[in-house]
Amino acid sequence: MQPSLQLTESGRLKHFLTISGLSKALLTEILDTADSLIEVGERQIKKVPLLRGKTVVNLFFEASTRTRSTFELAAKRLSADVLNININTSATSKGESLSDMLRNLEAMASDMFVVRHASSGAAHFIAESVTPGVAIVNAGDGWHAHPTQAMLDMLTIRQNKGQFEGLKVAIIGDILHSRVARSQIRALNTLGVDEVRVIAPNTLLPTQVESLGVTVFNDLEAGLDDIDVIIMLRLQKERMHGALLPSEQEYFELYGLTRERLQCAKPDAIVMHPGPINRGVEIESEVADGPQSVILDQVTNGIAIRMAVMSMAMSGQTETKNLLAESAS
Amino acid sequence: MKIEITNGSLLNHQGEWQVFKCIQITNNIITRVLQDDLSAKPNFDADTQINARGCYIFPGLIDLNVSLRDPGYSVKGSVKSETMAAAAGGVTTLCCTPETDPINDSEAVTKLISKLAQTNNKCQVLPLGAFTQGLKGEQLSEYASLKKAGCIALSNAYHPIKNLAITKRCFEYARTHNLSVFINPIEASLHEGVMHENHVSTTIGLQGISSLAETVAVAQLIQLAQTTDVHLHLSQLSAADSVSQLKAAKEKGIKVTADVAVHHLLYTDEQVENFNSMFHCMPPIRSESDRQALLEGLNTGVIDTVTSAHQPHEAAAKQMPFGETEPGISGIELLLPMAIQLADNNELPLTRFISAMTTQSAAVLSLDTPEIAEGKAASLCIFDPAHSWTLKAEDLLSKGKNSPLIGQTLKGKVKATIYAGNISFIDN
């Protein structure tokens, strides 16, 4: 991965496209910044002026409720003006190319695009084609990356466990099609956990998944042994086609997280899920709502992480712009 | 027209470079090759003099797989633009794929392409006829009419094999008419994805195409070729196991030949890591072990020849997220600089590359062995192997500027190409 695409010359964030290529120090800086911004959400007036006068465009080529809402809230709490563009009702359906559409939005003096797209690499493509000074934040591209989701998960883990060293983390479910899992694995390994396990049948694991830095388990109970953090992934209904899985019933029987199975992990293990939850398919309601679940903390942390990333990327862009202005004069 | 080329080096029968003093061409025939004794040089009033000091001179390259995009895709290329590009690449003969609009499954389209090529007169264009009507994999094309109109062989042009019974009948019918079949081996049901399936596709989350999509098809096609006795030419092999199967088939005496695209010899899937759509091609560039197997196959003669697999595209076709871009590389103009990279890496001698793209390509097409000798046809390339230059998009004569080499400093440049006694390209 090209680190230079998302970093300034001095190594600060200017786009946020992927966890890949980011240092432990930078990931920690994102977590620390988010920590300091959590307090904003608890104020009477939930606003700070970090993005005052800036225009943030939420460019969602795929339907999303929670991610888009938390990005919108994050931008508004940073005092930015926010424009939401739902592509199904917009110009690309009239045949306008993605590049042309970006030019038009740039012409409206946008400062940041938050992009979700069904194609892996879409955020990279946009970051390569926009004018210098405009920041791109990846809100999920294909099966590639969902770095803000991964970072809000890291924040949740740090709040509950204090540190990453010594932790054993299990990610359960559809790794093959999951941008969330790819970003989580990268972040967990960079932040220095002891072990990352993936637990799934072989049909839901990509080729050479070990190359990502994980240990593979086909058996849920064996994989949960001695685990500190359990991350469940959402199972899409369409995985029941194309011979990936036989049925939801058999999947739940083998990989559904139940109270009994939770016993296999450490007694203080936390249970996470990026949402939306399929109750009774990947997780039992009693576990999702139980004392070990931190699923709602994840949502709250999502706003703080997105505020952190947006303000950091914008300040990185300002640094780049100033350098450009200096070299021009 | 009389052309005189002085100095330079020629490839001799031992496969070594040998200096010469003078080559004289009158109309389309090489009339004199003088190695050293200039006193034997008769008076020759040349219209054009080319000083080839420091250059290699060899027969014009024969490229077995070129998309001219004409008729039908004028935004990507035309017979005019792409044959000019071929000449700039040192190519004097090319086979063009039937994937045009309309598809070349009829006498009319074949004749149209041939006529356009003759009008432009930049190189010999040998059309490949569609293996099935409309390349749909359902019904035989009119092989006899296609052959009569000038098709040199048949091709499926990257369209996956859908039905083995139909493929078998196509092979039988092709054998009846003594036509070779050029097949891109692709098993349709395994062919979902946009890059090679490996740890890189896993890391970046692009859907991978397993090597099985090719190797399963190669196994089936070789068995069908053996049974039907057709000459099967496997186009653009990309996977290591395909090379092993090809070797075994040749050892059994099955009439099978194969080529590899030059970019499969140079690149691996690691290049895709930052989503550079210039490396999006079909079949996908695969892993380092595949690349090594392809190089070994070519070095040992298991793989017969190299092609550019030239696929020009308009800029917009590549300006999208990786998976949505159109596959293919515009490569015909850069065959020799790419060959120099392989030679400089000690991976493939330049002489092997040249003999593959001249002698071996001619053999696949059952054409006479091209040679630079008195009395032979004057189609040749003058190539400066040491010339260093930086490639800009506008340097490419092809309409397709989709080359991963743009912006790079290259070594080796074609100085001139002579096709049938005329200068089809000269570097100014």
Describe this structure in words.
The complex is a heterodimer of chains A (329) and B (428). Chain A has 329 residues and is of the alpha/beta class. Chain A has 12 helices and 9 strands. In chain A, strand 1, helix 3 and strand 2 (81-86) form a beta-alpha-beta unit. In chain A, helix 3 packs across helix 12 (295-328), helix 6 crosses helix 7 and helix 6 crosses helix 12 (295-328). Chain A is globular, with a radius of gyration of 20 Å. The model of chain A has no long low-confidence stretch (mean pLDDT 92). Chain B is of the alpha/beta class and 428 residues long. In chain B, 28% of the residues lie in helices and 23% in strands. Chain B has 11 helices and 20 strands. In chain B, the strands form 4 sheets. Chain B has an 8-stranded parallel beta sheet with strand order 8-9-10-11-12-15-16-17. In chain B, helix 1 (79-88) links the parallel strand 8 and strand 9. At the A-B interface, helix 5 of A face helix 5 of B.
